Amino acid sequence: MKFLDLAKVYIRSGAGGGGAVSFRREKYIEYGGPDGGDGGDGGNVVVEVVDGLNTLIDFRYQQHFFAKNGQPGMGKQRTGKDGDDIVLRVPVGTEILDEDEETVIADMTEVGQRLVLAKGGNGGFGNLHFKSSTNQAPRRANPGQEGVERTIWLRLKLIADAGLLGLPNAGKSTFLAASSNARPKIADYPFTTLHPNLGVVGVDNAEFVMADIPGLIAGAHEGTGLGDRFLGHVERCSVLLHLVDGTSETVVEDYQTIIHELEAYGGVLADKPRVTALNKIDALDDTEQAEKLSALEAAVGGPVLAMSGVSQEGLIPVLRAVRAQIQSDRLREKKSQEEPEQWRP
Fold this sequence. Notes:
Structural class: alpha/beta
Strand content: 15-25%
């Protein structure tokens, strides 16, 4: 399945049906009177969060969503049928933006959450509605109210507990594959990861969701490389895991490049708790590892963990450090692996 995290859609609610002008005319009934019914209401455009979706790819193939119009009223006091609603089904974490792509209309963060984006028009009154003691044969009816037409943007921000950051080929996908059930594409060229990947990580009888974000490079906030469009997916994370390529000759500069991009992006990303790890230590000797760890700790101003996603050396301590920064209410208890009790007759 292709990944899509931004979509532009056009919506229109249904117009209300017009009221009817009708009079009751039956044999042997001297005074029939007005009997025109009201028009039906137009359908609404509704957005609903459903389970099982993690992309907006459906909106690549359909961008126009129009609700049904209400039916006009009819004689014999019959009200027109209401127009059917149309429902936009989106994944958890979808933001609804106005046409300017900046104003947030709603943030859909829970399964089952529903919101009316465009309300259908009211049906018009039939002439029965205007009957009175002084106007016993009204010949007027109201037209239905027009529907609402608008353009909106859907922007997906994945719901993850921890986010992976780093330059291209820092080993993020390898780390995610080694620590979770995710199977992202892994190759030895930059920008192998073109869209975020999610994996469920288990450590110390608890599970949390980790997101692998495509690599950032210098100038990403200005659109260089893949740009910073994917950083929105880590805005909801409790902690960021920053992986630094240990085989690079400029580990401090690599670290500072990512920090600069986080600060240039703005928002709360730069202030989120971070765990920094020197990756690919299986390719370093003891002297190189000690020198790079020391230089990186001086730049970070705190401890830096050492690990290797390939050999899985130091993997568990890194996962534990990430777990310690995640809010307890976001952790899920790991399912018991105990064997089921044998059946006895």
